[in-house]
Design goal:
OB fold (Dihydrolipoamide Acetyltransferase, E2P), 2 domains, alpha+beta, single chain, globular
Length: 262
């Protein structure tokens, strides 16, 4: 199967993870022009040239090919060196209306509960969902152990000691000493509620790394306030654990921004 050029609007990027095969990988969530979800994985985003390093709500043109090693129907490999950034949906308040026009164009992947999403995963392989919470119980930091830190540093050292004829330098990928966890309830009946999930969103974790973990926790608490924000969760499952879903992106237009609620 050959690579096919496809237009994608980016709505989610996970924080980079170490990889023995790819040095590090980023899982990217987006939508095609018809509103259907797509996963670009793996992407060595920090190792791409600057003009290929896309941001949230960029429209990109990307050559994709269905992954034969990833059973998830929405997952596609990419030819990263040929990514082109075409346009950007504005990041100001007016931009949420433009984003909503695409995210809500195809609601077949929108759910009121994680249980409904998991049911679809079992029946059709669905691996990406947009889920609406009804309540946020807690936002908190969970410290990682010294053992986790040591394992991480050893893995990074081993990866960077490997011979790679295509890489002249390795970028440092900082160990994150905390997880940011969200405790929440679905808007429809879900026997698994309440959920307690770590947030994998790159932007939030980069804020933590640069401005401090308390700042990032407080930012998520602000955005997840259901009184002031139309807060929803972009969720995806994991290639080796198809029945487990995590939070890979955030939807949070302010309710005062009427363009996002139309």
């Amino acid at each position: 199967m050959a690579y096919e050029s496809t237009k994608v609007l980016i709505w989610g990027k996970t924080y980079p993870e170490l990889s023995k095969t790819y040095t590090e990988t980023v899982c990217t969530g987006g939508c095609r022009e018809d509103g259907s979800p797509i996963r670009l994985y793996p992407v060595q985003l920090r190792y791409l040239e600057g003009e290929q390093q896309y941001s949230l709500y960029d429209w990109i043109d990307v050559p994709i090919e269905k992954s034969t090693k990833d059973p998830r129907p929405e997952s596609f490999k990419v030819r990263g060196d040929d990514i082109k950034i075409l346009d950007r949906v504005p990041t100001d308040k007016q931009g949420w209306g433009g984003r909503r026009a695409l995210i809500f164009k195809d609601t077949s992947w929108h759910y009121g509960s994680v249980a409904a999403l998991k049911s679809q995963q079992k029946s059709s392989g669905k691996s990406i969902g947009f889920v609406t919470p009804s309540a946020i119980d807690d936002v908190r930091l969970v410290a990682k152990s010294d053992e986790e830190r040591q394992i991480y540093l050893e893995k990074m050292a081993k990866i960077q000691s490997q011979q790679d004829f295509f890489r002249t330098e390795y970028k440092q990928l900082a160990f994150l000493p905390y997880e940011i966890k969200l405790r929440w309830r679905c808007s429809e009946i879900c026997p698994e509620c309440p959920h307690d999930m770590k947030v994998l969103d790159w932007g939030l974790l980069e804020l933590a790394r640069k401005a401090g973990w308390d700042k990032a926790r407080d930012r998520l608490a602000e955005l997840s306030d259901l009184q002031s924000h139309d807060f929803r969760l972009f969720m995806g499952n994991f290639r080796l654990h198809l029945g487990v879903f995590g939070i890979i992106g955030l939807w949070y237009p302010a309710k005062t921004d009427q363009t996002s609620l139309l």
